[in-house]
Amino acid sequence: MGKVNPKAKIVPFRGEYYELVPEKRYLVKGLIYPVPNPEFPFLGVHLTRMINGSVHAGPNAVLSFKREGYKKTDFDARDFAEVITYSGFWKLAVKHANNGIQEIIRSFSKTAFTRSLQQLIPEIQERDLIPTHAGVRAQALMNDGKLVDDFLICCDDNSIHVCNAPSPAATSSIEIGKAIVKQIPHQEHLLPITIR
């Protein structure tokens, strides 16, 4: 990234989902979230009614051992070494050890995952959940162990870098683009750019 040092690294977190069986979809009419813990950087498992009527439950948030590690068994030695040798990761892990352990348990125990959902809807049973897809969140993590929960835009002599673009980056991409373009006047050495 040129001369830019954002003082952050991208750490992959896998989020695993279940789908609610059709007979229990009536329990969820929209979005159901737990009350967030402002000290913990992830929302916790929640329920989302999709456009097609299906209901997704999740995600949890566990360290992925590979940048594109969508399965528990995915592993890349270089990716893993980059994370575990980063001091920011260990600061995050120590600060949120209890939450991290709970996330790992939820990853390997459908019972634990179900219990988390029962805090939102007590009627949900383990048999009501079907394993489905997983996603990987590319999360910027600062050297001090804090997750970057906003956009991280850095400039060097010749370029502007978007180092972190959290949700809803895709849905707000036009406004993000406008904000990036506003950085250009502060970079007099960059060529003028015309936007039509």
Number of helices: 5
* Class per helix and strand makeup: alpha+beta
Query: What average pLDDT do the residues reach?
Result: 89
In whole angstroms, how far apart are the ends? Answer: 28 Å
CATH topology: D-Amino Acid Oxidase, Chain A, domain 2
- Residues in helix, %: 25-40%
Number of strands: 8
Question: Radius of gyration over alpha carbons?
Answer: 20 Å
Shape: globular
Pfam family, one: DAO
GO molecular function, one term: (S)-2-hydroxyglutarate dehydrogenase activity
InterPro entries: FAD-dep_OxRdtase
Protein name: FAD dependent oxidoreductase domain-containing protein
What does this structure look like?
This protein is of the alpha+beta class. It has a single domain (8-148), classed as D-Amino Acid Oxidase, Chain A, domain 2. The chain is 25% helix and 24% strand. The protein has 5 helices and 8 strands; from the N terminus they run βββββααααβββα. It has helices at residues 77-84, 87-95, 97-108, 110-118, 173-183; strands spanning 8-20, 31-32, 46-49, 55-58, 62-63, 129-142, 152-155, 160-164. Strand 7 (152-155) and strand 8 form a beta hairpin. Helix 3 (97-108) crosses helix 4 (110-118).
